[in-house]
Amino acid sequence: MSDVTMAHPDLPDQPITVREDAVSHYQAAGWGIVETPPPPRKATARRRRQTGEES
After folding, report:
1. Residue 28 located in a structural domain
2. Which structural domain range is residue 9 located in?
3. Structure confidence by residue, pLDDT tens digits, 21-54
């Protein structure tokens, strides 16, 4: 089975990937099929805060 990317109108920035056989279940709950899946999110690096003097 293949996977399908779906999105919900109330959660437009949170697409999900489901198995093809579960699509009708998600469609009944308001999810719609997304034709082109969004690109994967890039990880963002976090800076460490400097506190006091370095040893």
Report:
1. yes
2. 3-33
3. 999 999 999 999 998 766 667 777 777 777 777 6
